[in-house]
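HOLO CASE FILE
Compound: nickel (II) ion
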Amino acid sequence: MKLKYLGHSCFYGEINNIKWIIDPFITGNPNCPISIDDLEDITHIFITHGHSDHFGDTIELCKKFEPIVITNVEIASYLNFLEIPAFGMQIGGRHKFPFGTVKMTPAIHSSTIDTAQGNIYGGNPGGFIFTFDDFTIYHAGDTGLMTDMELFQEDDIDIMMVPIGGFYTMDLDDAVRAIELVKPKISIPMHYNTFDLIKADPDEFKLKNIFSKTIIMDFGQEIDI
Ligand code: NI
Ligand code: MN
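Model generated. Tokens follow.
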């Protein structure tokens, strides 16, 4: 699988004929080196919660590519209101889609959607555990540390994308504790150095994380995994 980090919590992946993106905060993301015009044929979009640094360019991407959208019920119904089809899952729910299985995980956080009419309720914030072939990814979304993460050990996570920036989410020390609970094979830090309030040193996270391999992805970097 090809994996590309677009800064903040946004990752893009390619596997078989699938081109997925999660938390597509591209426009306005100071660390995202591309614009939405550089993306081609997005087939799947995952949105962890409604905050603009995650919901991002969802509407534009949906209008352009008509992808399969997977998010929570409230964000899905907002998209439906805009005549964009979307799957609205609930925390703890699991579903086998044609491409693989998706489970929505809890996240200790909040969720609102910015609209022209102001903020609206964005449902429960979450994360996703999703599989492509035999490959399992856990994108934690925006969350504080929670003991529930220990349960995800049983999901046999290959890659965990974990926030390390603090203030709105776990900081890097709590992220290391999260890794200890989840025990993924690989951890990729995210949600840091986008804004001054979430400054963090990913090398310090890597040094402290003795529980998995850490891959620090540069903004815009693409790897084969
Ligand atoms: Ni958030
Ligand atoms: Mn955020």
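CASE NOTES: Helices lie at 52-55, 58-65, 73-81, 172-182, 202-208. The pocket of manganese (II) ion (ligand 2) is lined by residues 51, 53-54, 142, 168, 191 (CB under 6 Å).
CLOSED: yes
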